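Reminder to self: tokens first, then the designed residues, so the page reads top to bottom the way the pipeline ran.
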């Protein structure tokens, strides 16, 4: 089983037969800002959101550097998640995040706090170098958030066709320019982008269809009739 068409092509090149079965996602209701206001001082639509591990390939350090240089018109940057323990990169990222004005570090977020952060972000941002099928991006899309992501195959698979901003972020200048493109979007453009991203998630990522497909595969492998 592979979770993206890019991985399926990779294994096909190596003569491996695979079944493409992407990650599923529910379409949540909106979550008004409550805990994020009381705990993080956020009103909603006033922050960019990164959600994930702070591994080197995620380019969290580079995102913070670009955010610091741009000075995003009153927007804050929420960097949710934690650094990899006991690594020089993790410590460096945490030092920079802690010393950069406007960066908020809520740690690992779950439940209602996570849903509120996703539901009320100005936009979701990921500069990751490599992904399979990123759940954080799927979650942001399900919450109808506009997304700015690195132009890599897994992101392209989800956001091609105007469903989000795909940008080259391989240099410091390109990362700042990508953030500038994002914050320059009008409210109408951001709403349209977020709405299209959410609408296009189904039926490809519908849980009912995916479970049916997985049951069919198991029955086939076990020699049943399905």
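Designed residues (226 positions):
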């Amino acid at each position: 089983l592979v979770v993206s068409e890019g991985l399926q092509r990779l294994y096909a090149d190596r003569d491996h037969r695979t079944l493409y079965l992407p990650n599923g996602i529910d379409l949540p209701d909106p979550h008004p800002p409550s805990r994020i206001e009381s705990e993080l001082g956020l009103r909603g639509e006033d922050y960019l959101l990164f959600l994930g591990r702070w591994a080197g390939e995620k380019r969290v350090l580079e995102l913070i550097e670009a955010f610091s240089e741009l000075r995003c018109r009153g927007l804050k940057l929420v960097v949710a998640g934690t650094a990899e323990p006991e690594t020089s990169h993790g410590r460096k990222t945490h030092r920079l995040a802690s010393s950069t004005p406007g960066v908020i570090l809520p740690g690992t977020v779950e439940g209602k706090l996570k849903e509120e952060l996703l539901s009320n972000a100005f936009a979701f941002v990921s500069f990751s170098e490599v992904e399979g099928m990123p759940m954080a991006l799927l979650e942001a899309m399900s919450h109808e958030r506009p997304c700015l992501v690195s132009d890599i195959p897994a992101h392209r698979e989800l956001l091609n066709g105007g469903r989000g901003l795909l940008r080259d972020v391989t240099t410091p200048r390109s990362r700042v320019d990508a953030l500038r493109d994002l914050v320059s979007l009008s409210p109408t453009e951001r709403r349209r982008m977020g709405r299209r991203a959410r609408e296009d998630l189904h039926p490809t990522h519908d849980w009912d269809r995916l479970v049916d497909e997985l049951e069919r595969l198991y029955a086939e492998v076990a020699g049943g009739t399905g």
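The beta strands are 47-51, 76-80, 103-107, 123-126, 147-150, 165-167.
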